[in-house]
Amino acid sequence: MMVAEGVAEETKLHNNSLWFLVHGEIDHRHKHHASRIKSKTLAPLSPETVIAASPRVYHVASYGGADPTGVNDSTDAIRRAIGEALQARRGEFLYTGIQNLGGVRVDLDGGVYAVSQPLQLPPGTGNFVIHGGTLKASDDFPTGESYLIDLSAGNGSLEYNFEFVTFRDLFLNSNLRGGGIRVVNSLRISVDNCYITGFTSEGISVAGGHETYIRNSFLGQHITAGHDPGESHFGGTAISLSGNDNAVTDVVIFSAAIGILISGQANILTGVHCYNKATGFGGTGVYLKTPGLTQTRIVNSYFDYTGIVAEDPVQLQISNCFFLGDAFILFKSVNGVINGVNVADNMFSGSSQGDIVRLDESKGSFKHIDQVTIDRNNARGMNIKSTIARAKSNNVTSSTSWKVDLNHILLFPNRTTYVEYTFVPSGDFFPKHALKSVSNNLVVVESDVEVVATVFVMAQQGNSH
């Protein structure tokens, strides 16, 4: 019996059970189902019992003008496939005004397709998938702010334009003419297992909306495996997040001037490996350009000869990361604010060229400092910087004054807000002693009589009270 593709699941079960009845091979897994349908399955099936459903997968290669070899322009064929897929289902909605297309898929079937224009989806598209092949910009693809796949079309009547659109298993080559994927004012968009290269603007641009998830993907302006002779000329931004509540997980960025640019709030980066462009060549792994309210978490990530820059960070977490090749964290003062920052449990490796955390106060010093904790980091070939310092005096002879300089450890100059010390005399005599001063991160303890002693100091900075 011929059964049309897309046959209903109930019909498939019906036919399978009939086969077992005819051949007398029903086992214990089918007894219950067979007994339930016995009165129906003993009679021959008529053609009317086969229910054919509309296809839910649209194969680009089956449309006229599609060239899966990538030689000829396939823009019109792909647009027709997308257009038909968008008509697949009407009447059900996700968020207000966004059509639920039921998970309909546009399948590239492993082909390589050249496109001369951006592939744009209309606003109101939801539960839609494009997957399984390669898209490359042709030599006449428009340059500048053009993207191979574009979810930027707006509709003044919609609060959000797209929801639950998935791009999966795609290789996108922008051919140094534009960007890869643009997502604007959208909800719950997925970019999964994609390789994006050849971008001059952004590999993935997310603006407005929230909950765009980028997973298990690879991005680079140029295809390289590191130590590229042209690294100093790498440009573009691999991922730009100017929306809220987005996640980048298990992503490798191997060439770009900026790996990830964040200007939205409440985003999280996990398992990211940036070796996009070395700091020595002017590159940045992650740039937090969000003065005033960062609310970003960067965890379990790897910064390979390129680091993190954060402008006036407020509520920023950087933890359990590895910084290689003198990569470091830079806090840049714009309005002099740093608040609610935790940098802890990270590893740094370098060649004795600087501190693990640094300040850029070229536009003014940090004046509003509160709830900043930098501690429990370890380093080889780099200098530890912290907001918590532990040290002891070096006096070996009797004295009435002990000085402990903490500038080589403490991050902020002349800002020690809390000090504890322990006075340990070498003999049985125990003099009176007191904390004399804390200025320029220099702790001074004095006693009323001369004595041989060691002073242990623990100091903190980073809190306003």
Automatic annotation (TrEMBL):
One of its GO terms (molecular function) is polygalacturonase activity. Gene3D superfamilies: Single-stranded right-handed beta-helix, Pectin lyase-like. InterPro entries: Pectin_lyas_fold, Pectin_lyase_fold/virulence, QRT3-like. Signal peptide: none annotated. This is Pectate lyase superfamily protein domain-containing protein. It comes from Cuscuta campestris.
